[in-house]
Amino acid sequence: MANRNQHWTPSLDGLTDDDAGHPPEPATPSVIHDAMSFTEMCERFKCYFTDKINTPQNVRALKASTVVTRLAEELRDDSQNPATLAALLWCRAQFAFSADDDSGEGVDMSRAMACELVACEFTSALSAADALRYLCFELPSEPEMEVQESGVRPGNNRESGYGTISESSTFLSGFSASGDVEEGPGSDYVGLNTLEIAVMADAKRFISHRPVQMVINGIWDGSISFWKKLDIHGSKTPHFYNARKGDPYLRLRVPKYQKVFEAAFFTVLLALYYVVLAERNPHHITASEGALFVFFTAFIADEISSIIDSGVQFYAQDLWSLLDLCMVAIGVIYLVLRIIGVVEYSDDITDTAFDVLSLEALLLVPRVFSLLTLNQYFGVLIPCLKQMTKEFCQFCILVVIIYCGFLTTFSLLARDRMSLKDTAWLLIYVFFGSSYAGFSAMREISPVLGPPLMIIFVTLTNILLITSLISLLSNSLTSMMSNAREEYLFMFSIMVLESSTSNRLVVFFPPLNLLPLILLRPLRLILPAARLRGLRIALLKASHFPFAAAIMAYERITGVKETRHTNWGPARTPGAGASISSVSRRPPLAGLGIFSSHGNHRRSIVGLPSEWTGRLRLGPQAPVQNHHHHHYSQHQQQPTKSSASSTRSARARTIGNMYRDQDTMGDDVRDQEMRRMGKMLEELTRKVDAILEHHGTA
Questions:
Q1: Distance between CA atoms of 13 and 66, rounded to whole angstroms?
Q2: Cβ(241)–Cβ(223) under 8 Å?
Q3: How far are the Cα atoms of 135, 492, 614 from residue 216, in angstroms, in the given order?
Q4: Cα angle at 81 between 52 and 606, to 5 degrees?
Q5: What pLDDT score does 211 carry?
Q6: Which of 20, 201, 275, 602 has its Cβ near the most Cβ atoms within 10 Å?
Q7: Which residues make Cβ contacts (< 8 Å) with residue 507, sequence separation at least 6?
Q8: Cβ-count burial of 526 within 10 angstroms (0-12 exposed, 13-18 middle, 19+ buried)?
Q9: Is 234 helix (H, G, I), strand (E, B) or coil?
Q10: With contact defined as beta carbons under 8 Å apart, do 268 and 460 qualify?
C-alpha cells in the first residue's frame, strides 16, 4: 500500500472504453492523508477529479469507473480524517457551480456526480459512531483552521469543529478557501456541518443514501443529540442519547418535539386571527387583538433568530421559510397600520389595516397544516410546487416581452378610441382564454390591422404559449416525481437540520422567546457572558417546565429506544459510547455490521437494528446466531491475517454495492436481497471457521 504521507502527483490515466478488457491498473498513490487540513483536502480532491474525468459520463458509467472505485477503496481503508466527506461535498458544490450546462451530462456535472458517489461509497463503510463523527463534522473558523495546520491532532475538541461556543451562530461568516480553491457556492461554509454542506451542494443522492438517512432520522427522533449538558460550560458534541444521563430540558431541542409545539403555536395564532377579524373593533385594541400582537411579535423574533442561526442561504432552502417571511411582512404592515389608525383615529387607515390582515389567511392556514409534509405524498408535492413555480416565473419573462410588444401596438392603433388601461385589460382577458373579447374589439382597435393582429395574438398566446407552458410544467412535474424519494428526503433533511443544528445552547419556544428579550437583553450591558448564560438557562427551566414534563411523560409512556451502543455499521470498537471525537475509525470490515467481533465470539447479524431503521424500514430482523472461536497461538493466527484482511475488504465492497443498489430497489426486492445476502455471509462465516479450525488442529 502506498505511503499515506506521500505527496500525490496527478496523472491523466482516465477511464477509457478498453478498460473492461484489460487487467486493473495498479492502485493510484494516496490522494490524501490524515494530516491534511480541510482546504488541502479540497484542493487534492478537486485536482484528482479534474485530471481523471475529462469526458461527460452518466451515473452508471461513473459507478463502474476505476476513478470512483479506487478512491472509495483508499478512503474506506485508510482515511481517518473527519473532514473527508465535507471536502468531497465541497468539491461537488464547486463542480456543480461551474457546470457547462444544466442537463446533467457536462464534464463538470460528471465530476460533481463522481464526488457524490465516492462520498456515498465511503459512508457505506462507516460504523454508527464513525458516521456520526464524519457527518456531523463542523467546519472550523479561520483561526481554528490555522491551529489545525500547525499540527493539532485528533483528540483536541477543536479539531472536530466542536467546542465551547457562544450563543451567537457563526454560520456563513465568510470563509474563503485558499490556494487553488475558487470562490463559489462552497466558499462560505464556515460553521456548517457535513450534512448542511450536502444540502447547500444540492447532493440529493447523498442525502437520500441510507446511512445518511439513518443519522438524520436519529437526529429527528432524538436518538442523536448535539448537547450533553445544559450548563454554562455546555459544548456542542454530537453523541447518541442516553436516557439515563440526559438532561430532560435538552429534549426541547429534538426536532420532532419542536415541530409539534410549532404546530400548536400556529394553531393558537390562527384562532386569535379569526377572533380578531370577527370582532373587528376599529376604535380601540381589544384583549384578543393584544394577544395577537404578542404572538406576531414572538413569531417575528423567532424567524429573525432562525435566519441568524442558519444563515440566509441555508434558511432559504426551505419553502416554508419563504412563506414565513411573507407572513412576517404582512404582520409588520398590519401592526404599523393598526397602531397609526388608532393613534390618529383614522377609519380609512384602520380599514386598510384589517384588509392587510385578511391576506394573512392565505399563508397562515397552510402553515398550520405544514406537518402534513412529513407524509411522503404531501412531502413530494411541496418540492414539485416550488420547482414548477421557478419554471413558471422563468417562462413569464417571455410572456411579458411578447405582451408589451402587442400592448404598444394595440394602444397606438386605438389611441383615439380606447385608453391604455382598457387595452391592457383587454389583452389580459385574451391571454387567459377570453378570445371572444378580443375578436369583439378588434375592429374597434383598427378596422384594417385589428383583425389580423388579434388573430396572431390569440394564436400565439392561447395555442403556442399556453401549450408550451403546460408542457414545460408537466415535464418538470414528471422529472420531480421520478425522483420522488430523493426530493422528499431532501426536504425532510432540510427541515430536520434547520431545527437541530443551531449553535445556541438555550432556545425558547414562541411566544416565550419574548421573555429573554425583555428580561435579559438589557442585562448584556452589565453582566458577563457566563453569568448571562446561566440566567438564560434558569429562565428556560422556569418557563419551559410544562413542555419538558410533557416530553418526559410521553417518552416514559412510549419508551425511548437506547442507541448509545447501537450495532449499526462495522464492528463496534471499545468505548463507542464515549465522545465522538475520541472514537477511532473502525476497520472497513464491511460496513454494515454484518460481522461483529467482540471478545472470542463472532456474531452474524442480518439487517439493521430497529433503532436505526427510523422512518425507512429495511425489512424484518433476522435472528442472531453465535459462532464460537477456537483459541490459537500467535504463530498460528499470523498466516491468516492477510487473508482475513482481503476477505474484509471484499465484504466491504460487497456491502457498499448492496447499499448503493438499495436506493433503486423496491421494498420487497430489498428485503429478499437482504435475506439472501445474510444467508450467503453466514455460509461464508461457517467456511472461514472451518478453515481456521483446520489450521488450528493441523
A1: 10
A2: yes
A3: 10, 9, 9
A4: 90
A5: 92
A6: 201
A7: 252, 253
A8: exposed
A9: coil
A10: no
Could you tell me how many residues make up the chain?
A: 698
Radius of gyration of the chain (CA): 30
Phi, psi angles (nearest 5°) of residue 521: -60, -45
List per-block mean pLDDT (blocks of 10 residues) for the chain, which spans 698 residues.
38 40 44 80 89 87 88 86 90 82 69 92 89 88 47 37 40 34 52 89 91 93 87 83 85 91 93 92 88 94 87 81 91 92 90 93 91 84 85 91 92 88 91 87 88 91 89 86 86 88 84 91 87 90 92 85 45 36 36 35 35 36 39 38 42 51 50 74 79 69
Distance CA 570, CA 558 (A): 29
Residue 565 contacts by C-beta under 8 Å, 6 or more apart in sequence? Answer: 240, 572, 576, 577
One-letter amino acid for residue 55 of the chain: T
Residue type for 528, please? P
Instruction: Name the amino acid, one letter, at 571.
Output: A
The sign of the dihedral angle between the CA atoms of 162, 166, 172, 177 is: negative
Distance CA 67, CA 28 (A): 9
Q: How far is CA 320 from CA 304, 367, 491, 537, in A?
A: 14, 8, 10, 29
Find where cell 412576517 sits. 328
- The answer to whether the bond into 511 is cis (omega within 30° of 0) is yes
